Amino acid sequence: MAYQSILVEQRGAVTLVTLNRPEALNALNGQILSELLDAMAAFDKDTSQGCAVITGSERAFAAGADIKEMQSQGFASMYGHDFFAGWDAFTRTRKPVIAAVAGYALGGGCELAMMCDFILAADNAKFGQPEIKLAVSPGMGGSQRLTRAVGKAKAMEMCLTGRMIDAAEAERAGLVARIVPAAGLVEEAMKTAATIAGMAPLAVLANKEMVNAAYETTLTQGVQFERRLFHALFGTADQKEGMTAFVEKRPGNWTGK
Ligand code: CO8
């Protein structure tokens, strides 16, 4: 598939996806959705790739779903076609995906960042769910993921007023993993992604899966799920290699088996 709204580049074992609709501050339309889903499916299947980074421009990660595309839609078309339900497929990507956010991450842009496994924020990043100002609401999971990330008080205030938060407030609230200078954002995200891609592949999948399980389970079920996956990793060749490499004071050499 030839892409028009995203750029995809492989650097070693890391796939860098850049949202590229500068004329609309990377607003998310149907085309960007289908291109991103295609790119993520290819990334997930490609055994040479271990981690992905999604970024935008220094001005905007994404300023929301495309308002111009939604403007004339009615209930029948939105509900009938389950508008944007395709984004759910994005969250089924099994390998880790880092959001490298500079500038605006608003509405669907904030929601896309939250669908990634963690967010690295540039010091100029701004997050918000301003949909209420358009007389609508988050529709790609924002009311749920934001609430889980920052708690009810801040999420409720952000959704009801549309107030944006800056990178420092987002970090204090637990929405982002780290803040880095805007000029070095992509480089830092790529470095972090390369670290992840350098880990044993099955352990990477298992760690992602068990952290995500914390959103869906009780504590007892979650701890049980973690333990079962932990046990399962002892059936891998890479566990033997990893522990032997530690004892022999050398780096592990992974086979993904
Ligand atoms: N959609 C379409 N076009 C956009 C969007 C958008 N979300 N955001 C910006 N643009 C366009 C502008 O229209 C403008 O285009 P043009 O030059 O042709 O007029 C261009 O990008 C530049 O934008 P501005 O001139 O407005 O730039 P400013 O620097 O003055 O302002 C802002 C930047 C503050 C980011 C401003 O553009 C803004 O407020 N944008 C809209 C933010 C917003 O409301 N986002 C939420 C959208 S709704 C949503 O995301 C719902 C998600 C759930 C959908 C899932 C349904 C199932």
Strand content: 15-25%
User: In the residues, how many domains can be counted?
Assistant: 2
**Ligand catalogue:** octanoyl-coenzyme A
How many separate helices? 12
CATH class of the largest domain: Alpha Beta
CATH architecture descriptor name of the largest domain: Alpha-Beta Complex
Lateral arrangement of strands in the main beta sheet: 1-2-3-5-7-10
Look up the CATH topology of the largest domain.
2-enoyl-CoA Hydratase, Chain A, domain 1
Note the main attributes of this structure.
single chain, alpha/beta, 2-enoyl-CoA Hydratase, Chain A, domain 1, Lyase 2-enoyl-coa Hydratase, Chain  A, domain 2, 6-stranded mixed β-sheet, 4-stranded mixed β-sheet, 10 strands
Task: Describe what this molecule looks like in 3D.
By secondary structure, the chain is of the alpha/beta class. It folds into 2 domains: 6-197, 2-enoyl-CoA Hydratase, Chain A, domain 1; 200-248, Orthogonal Bundle (Lyase 2-enoyl-coa Hydratase, Chain  A, domain 2). It has 12 helices and 10 strands. The chain has a 6-stranded mixed sheet, with helices on both faces. The radius of gyration is 19 Å and the shape is globular. The model has no long low-confidence stretch (mean pLDDT 97). The protein binds octanoyl-coenzyme A. The site of octanoyl-coenzyme A (CO8) has 21 residues, from helix 2 and strand 6. Residues 24-25, 27, 63-68, 83-84, 104, 106-108, 130-131, 134, 138-140 line the site of octanoyl-coenzyme A. Pfam families: ECH_1 (PF00378).
